Structure formats: structure tokens, C-alpha cells
Amino acid sequence: MLAEWRGFNTNALEKEKPRARAAADLMPKVLSDLRLDRRQAEAEIARVWRNLVDPTVAAHAHPGGIYKGTLFVLVDTSVWLTEIVRYRRAEILERLQHSFGKEMIARISFRLG
Description:
Blueprint: H1 2-5, H2 11-15, H3 23-34, H4 36-52, H5 55-58, E1 61-67, E2 70-75, H6 78-100, E3 107-112
Parallel strand pairs: 2-3
Antiparallel strand pairs: 1-2
């Protein structure tokens, strides 16, 4: 072997080789790191958004993401942002919580975007 010829001791490296692990043992950690559950929830919210809210609101606002129970909604103009926050926030939050549960959507935050 070339390593032996050069005087390199490979025994120490062979002992340090990581043990092979089953894919089933690794998958929960990998899926958790990818946050697929959150991404799936975001995709589902985006998919039903137009059916849950008033079509006029849906034309000016769309879900941007969810983080720690807060749904972030992007609104296209400051006029619509004011309208939604003042008069429609409670209704939108109630409908979303009815469809997805209060654990998933505890709060809603509207932003220009």
C-alpha cells in the first residue's frame, strides 16, 4: 500500500471512521432541519387564501410566510394596508384560525410588500 510505503500510519484513521447509520434514523433530523412542515403549511395557506378572504382583499394582499404562529401578509399599497388592518384584520384572522387552527396561526401581521 502506498501509505505504508511512505511511512504513514493508517490504523488511527481507520479507527476514527464514522459508523454507518440507517436512513430511518437520520430522516427525522433532516426533515426537521428542512422545516418541511412549515413550508407545507405555508403552501396550504397560499393555496386557499383566495377562497378564505374577500376577493377584493385577495387582489391586494397575499400570505408571505409563517413564523412561530404569526402569519405575515404582504399588502401592495399603504391605502389597502390601512383598510385591512383597521377593518378586516379580525375577520381574516378568524377565518384562517377556523381553517388551520389557533396553534398554527395565533397572530397575523400585515406589511407592505
